[in-house]
């Protein structure tokens, strides 16, 4: 399979975007990615869009040709991929294969979600469609409640503490305060997180990623073409994708995310690296407990030591493995279908050295990890400044 | 890019399947495809699922890992693709690229829709999400109404007649009466079609494909592996995918489906064939007018002569280019996300000579054509008994 590279990235300001519709958000991100790649829109041969639930949020399915149309890509193939919160990460993965197969040389991959047109309770119901409708959400389980169950069990098995969860929020808000496109650009303290309202015990509102509007897009091409467009291509070194049982009750241990373990091991193998080689990572901190478990399941630390890893500052910018310099889902915001693409935008900026006040110095290898629902889907991509 | 082949197919009975849920339908089709391929489920490396709107029909997004889970595919990568009525055709296209890239050797591709859990008016509203929500469905345009506009204009420009539309229904019902898995296994007459209730003038209810539950699945592998599993592999000779403006009002001429023209020309070129070389075709007859326009836009006849083509019996089994021997969407039924895969199931059976009473004698080259909404998406695949 031939190598592929990212040569352009773009994203909108994330937040409550009352000024823009779904299509407008995507056009904004797509145009920025084209500009960043120094490329005319006629050169793009296909579009891959990640979107979770525009059907429920704004009454629109079949978004791919709509977005292609509004981006003036003119009759090009346009694919929509849906994998809950991992939608645009999975779209990126399929786009990698499409370019690797030789079918296309240059494609645009992006994600978009317009969530604030519905009320918060409605949004919670839509989120719940990412879990098992028959055996989980029908009985009232919501995504925050599912992660609250996971957190409680992690507390019991490994002694993890609410304060450690709060530290994830503190770190990601601090990073987000340095990201002009983040939804939340303010800092929080452990005390403020722990005194914020409970959403589902032990998770406070400041343990949860927000409801967000936004879009992100990248331009992907075959590695041999990349230098025609940029002096700083970012290569895809490896990837892994895995699934897990949909319902939590079918898993042997809810404190281990099996799909994350499998997807990351595939990605490390394909890239020929080990966890310690990762210089910067964007992880799926939909809830603070998720980021702690991800440290463990990605092999950044021993199982059960995720709480200590955040406590000791190892994932701060400047730490051993900086995680979520963008602010993560927590502070950058989480427009569900766009988050996977936004992670890639951040890692590309980090590897190019263009991340401004939140730059991880000298980053050479970056990782994105995205998951859907309670990690029934996980996609991991590893990027590098140099080819495999 | 390396060649790929279909080595196993399966589908459920289409119809009102009160006995089964979404997941059960897919498991039934998937298991049958595995059995047909003489393959254990552990050999499948990834799952590609086409589904239009389970989020709206049954409150379930993120269906790919759910279906993988219930099929016991165990933690394998599972992708969901949504392109309205072309969902599983587009999933098949991406699966072809994934195998061609060398990422996977053997994958399952399928589609499923469970539509009868909502009322008919609700179903019509869900269908409408396949069009432009802001500029079409918001103002009350439904899919039947959109195709009614197209039909009226075709009448004016080319002199096509309601009787000719009815003949499409008559042919497809006749074929469907020979298909034990079809939703409607009864014949109709031109008189009966024309005296059936009007849905949107000039389209009668017997001009429209029905609301259907069902699933279909195929096993796809690299061509070099195919003979290990079967003596009758069916090779993918070529494909084409294109999009068009979402809203009808943005098209220069609503009687020509631009995406169909573009996708089919790409597919012919890749396969190295011409329209006259097609021995059997499964086309997207969501409405009878669609099949007539498809004859024209696929190059089976001159523009404007589609009405004459059905009238002269050229697309009957035994005619010049038999179309929809399965009964098509009209009589086989149209479980939106499954229809693209069901077309592939039929063409594979036809090329293997296993289509029973509806067999097209000596078929060597087959075509599937699937489209979403008003053909804002079109995917064409060409299959053959021999490699390219």
TrEMBL record, chains A, B:
<dbReference type="InterPro" id="IPR002155">
    <property type="entry name" value="Thiolase"/>
</dbReference>
<feature type="domain" description="Thiolase C-terminal">
    <location>
        <begin position="240"/>
        <end position="385"/>
    </location>
</feature>
<keyword id="KW-0414">Isoprene biosynthesis</keyword>
<dbReference type="Pfam" id="PF22691">
    <property type="entry name" value="Thiolase_C_1"/>
</dbReference>
<dbReference type="GO" id="GO:0016747">
    <property type="term" value="F:acyltransferase activity, transferring groups other than amino-acyl groups"/>
</dbReference>
<dbReference type="InterPro" id="IPR055140">
    <property type="entry name" value="Thiolase_C_2"/>
</dbReference>
<keyword id="KW-0808">Transferase</keyword>
<dbReference type="Pfam" id="PF00108">
    <property type="entry name" value="Thiolase_N"/>
</dbReference>
<dbReference type="GO" id="GO:0008299">
    <property type="term" value="P:isoprenoid biosynthetic process"/>
</dbReference>
<feature type="domain" description="Thiolase N-terminal">
    <location>
        <begin position="4"/>
        <end position="223"/>
    </location>
</feature>
<dbReference type="InterPro" id="IPR020616">
    <property type="entry name" value="Thiolase_N"/>
</dbReference>
<dbReference type="InterPro" id="IPR016039">
    <property type="entry name" value="Thiolase-like"/>
</dbReference>
<protein>
    <submittedName>
        <fullName>Acetyl-CoA acetyltransferase</fullName>
    </submittedName>
</protein>
